[in-house]
Amino acid sequence: MGFGGAVAEVFIPLNAGGDVDEGRVGAMLDFLLRRGVEGLYVGGFGAEAFAFTTEERLGF
Questions:
Q1: Alpha-carbon gap, residue 28 to 4, rounded angstroms
Q2: What separation in angstroms does the CA of 46 have from each of 1, 3, 4, 34, 60?
Q3: Which helix (H) or strand (E) holds 30?
Q4: With the CA atoms of 28, 51, 46 and 4 taken in that order, what torsion angle do they form, in degrees rounded to the nearest 10?
Q5: Element spanning 16, H or E
Q6: In this predicted structure, what is the pLDDT of residue 56?
Q7: Element (H, E) at 10
Q8: What angle do CA 39, 45, 47 make, to 5 degrees?
Q9: What band does 19 get if pLDDT is binned at 50, 70 and 90?
Q10: What angle do CA 21, 47, 43 make, to 5 degrees?
């Protein structure tokens, strides 16, 4: 089995209060998938990922 195609890092969308904006998560994933992204890298190296607790990252 080989790997191929685009993999995108998924940034965690936040609302004005700094909480995860769950309403925007689905739209963002749909946007990436409709454009041919074949893999998603979630909660990785984006600056916001390091500001969350382990529980918050797992929840996302």
A1: 22
A2: 29, 23, 23, 22, 14
A3: helix 22-34
A4: -70
A5: none
A6: 76
A7: strand 6-10
A8: 130
A9: confident
A10: 60
